[in-house]
Amino acid sequence: MAKKPLLEFTDSGIYCAQGRFYIDPWKPVDDAVITHAHSDHARWGNKRYLAHQLSQQVLLYRLGDIQLQTVEYGEKVMKNGVEISLYPAGHVIGSAQVRVCYQGEVWVVSGDYKLEDDGISTPFEPVRCHHFISECTFGMPVYKWKPQKHIFDDMNNWWCQNVKEGRASVIVGYSLGKAQRILQNLDLSIGKVYTHGVIENTNEALRRNGIGLKPTTRITIDTPKEEVRRGIILAPPSSVGTHWMRRFNPYDFGYCSGWMSIRGAKKRRAADRGFVLSDHADWDGLIAAIEATGCEKVYLTHGYTASFSRYLSQIGFDAHEVHTLFGDDEEGEEAAPTQPPPEGEALTSALTENAGPKHLTAENFKVSPSGGGLEGAL
Ligand SMILES: [Zn+2]
Ligand SMILES: [Zn+2]
């Protein structure tokens, strides 16, 4: 009889039967190991949580009074004889890959990750393993990121120009990760940084966790508009098109997301400027990360799973597509589980002005033409 895999996919999430715990479960369970605090990975309702120490305050802020054990990177925790340890994923502050080891067999769950050192998250570290479960949000060759220095030079120049022309600068990115990455790379000799309440609450949680962020000023109804116009405003995606944002008129609105590399994405969000800035690995990054694990088998979750696993199989990997309920944090704040552009659309939309990522609902999420899944694969 075939040996039961150390990690398997269930209706509740990625499960280790031997250790009796889940990784980023999407239904409430007793023991949850959390890769990072984005809402599609850290959900409410689990009895016990295990996460990296730098996620502590954000998790408590987002999930309330939970039973949370925290660890440092590389620290080992035993659960029913199975060894668990976390390694940096470079995605957001406190984000981790989960290494699971039992009787010499090693599995790694990547969570979300990127390879570029963003200057604020602990940089990604490849972990050797037999089985690697990897995200592939941007697993299409069309996605290739420029070094962040280019993006932030552009952003600081754009801000300068707006100040000269008397317009406020509003920059949109999700509240955990993108907002702090932007903040740390802004040139504060240009002006002050103002924040939407959702972002400032997250900043406060991170500061409580000992993270040294640059100074920010929370926008309140009393904040003078003229003062804000010389600064830059960090806002979450949920504020786009709201009265809260319109009151800064005249303003220029910049949107930060990996999807901004697709022509048409900027237009659909009514952004004046699109900054191609992602906290996920691009095509080359994904392949480099997978190669660096030296894994025997790779399982692809959220993203272009079907085409990316086909490509990896062609270049000699034992690759399999799996279905999960992880969402798309590049798309928006606290977004419901969504799916990136259907297969092939990124390539065609790069050529057509109006096309771009279409997002399907959670109901549609499990319906995929190629099938397979982790259990089927094993
Ligand atoms: Zn994430
Ligand atoms: Zn994710």
Automatic annotation (TrEMBL):
One of its GO terms (molecular function) is RNA endonuclease activity. Gene3D superfamilies: Ribonuclease Z/Hydroxyacylglutathione hydrolase-like. Residues 329-378 are annotated as: Disordered. InterPro entries: MBL, RibonucZ/Hydroxyglut_hydro, Xnuc_lig_assoc. Coiled coil: none annotated. This is Putative mRNA 3-end processing factor. It comes from Mucilaginibacter gracilis.
